[in-house]
Amino acid sequence: MNGWKRTGALRLLLVVAVAGCGGSSTDVQEPVPTTLTLSDSAIVLTFLGETRRLSATVLDQSGSPIQEPVTWSSADEDVATVTSTGVVRAESNGGTRVTASAGGVSASVEISVDQRASFLAVVSGDDQTGIAGTELPEPLVVRAQDRGGSPVEGVAVTFAPDPNSGSVSPGSATSGADGTVSTRWTLGTEFGPQRVVATGTDVSDAELNAFAGSETPTPDLRPVDPVSVDRPDPSTFDTVVVRSVVRNEGDADALGVTVQLRIDGIEVASTELATVASMSDATVEFPDVGPLSSGTRAV
Q: How far apart are CA 131 and CA 136, in angstroms?
């Protein structure tokens, strides 16, 4: 039997049947304001007129931010006001609540206005002139103020005269509703400028000045340190130039003033100033002083 070959191809027909499916629908909900959060939970304002901006975030039912008009209100506008954009402004000491509302949801912030003094301002009594040893005609008045310049009540203030600047009464007091504190100043017995410093806790100081004169105008002269020498290290063969300043702190001009130069307590020269006006300085110069012996000399 003769062999034979059968070549065949098996073809597989794959029939895929796609069955039709029934239709379905998805409900898409409109975003609804569900939660409102604020940038702060509590605010403390420390001076009248101070402002702070609040921001509000509105979330829908899925927790996503949405754009929704926000309205703002303050429970007590005498304490703090709020603008339509959420800017809170301190009006007076106390507490209130600011509320933001949007689409039926709301949130609140506690506002505390706690005014604090920042500095003492001079109201009156500065730059007076009086007789040494007597009380000035006007009281010294300072005002405790916050950073915005508003008066602060209840601030303890102390008045301290400089040495030789007399005394004050009372030495301390507490600011009233208008923020002011006052005292009376009796000048010291020395002629010339005098000063009182007003201080308080955690506030900047205030300085008040006066000039003490005499019933009869009188000059009051003194040399002003330091005395200057043109060469700090001269040899025993050199001369030096010595200069000094004479100050008249009296309330009358000084006429015919003699100024002596002493080295190691011994007078070596003198000069005369024709006039030293009241409350002014005059420079004196001694040329060609020396030569001096070696060592340290007191001029």
A: 8
* Residue 173: exposure state from Cβ atoms within 10 A (0-12, 13-18, ≥19): middle
Q: Which amino acid is at 221?
A: L
Q: Does residue 23 carry a pLDDT above 60?
A: no
The whole-number average pLDDT for the span 239-256 is 87
Residues belonging to the chain: 299
Evaluate the omega torsion of the peptide bond into residue 69 and state whether it is cis, within 30 degrees of 0.
no
Enter the pTM of the model.
Answer: 0.64
Question: Is a pLDDT exceeding 60 seen at residue 72?
Answer: yes
Rounded to whole angstroms, how far apart are CA atoms 82 and 240?
75
- Nearest to residue 250, comparing CAs of 271, 223, 285, 222? 222
Phi, psi (5° rounding) for residue 144? -80, 125
263 Cα distance to chain centroid: 49
SS3 string, the chain, reads CCCCCCCCCCCCCCCCCCCCCCCCCCCCCCCCCCEEEECCCEEEECCCCCEEECCEEEECCCCCECCCCCEEEECCCCCEEECCCCEEEECCCEEEEEEEEECCEEEEEEEEECCCCCEEEEEECCCEEEECCCECCCCEEEEEECCCCCECCCCEEEEEECCCCCEEECCEEECCCCCEEEEEEECCCCCEEEEEEEEECCCECEEEEEEEECCCCCCCEEEEEEEEECCCCCCCCCCEEEEEEEEECCCCCEEEEEEEEEECCEEEEEEEEEEECCCEEEEEEEEEECCCCCCCCCC
Q: What average pLDDT does the segment 218-247 reach?
A: 85
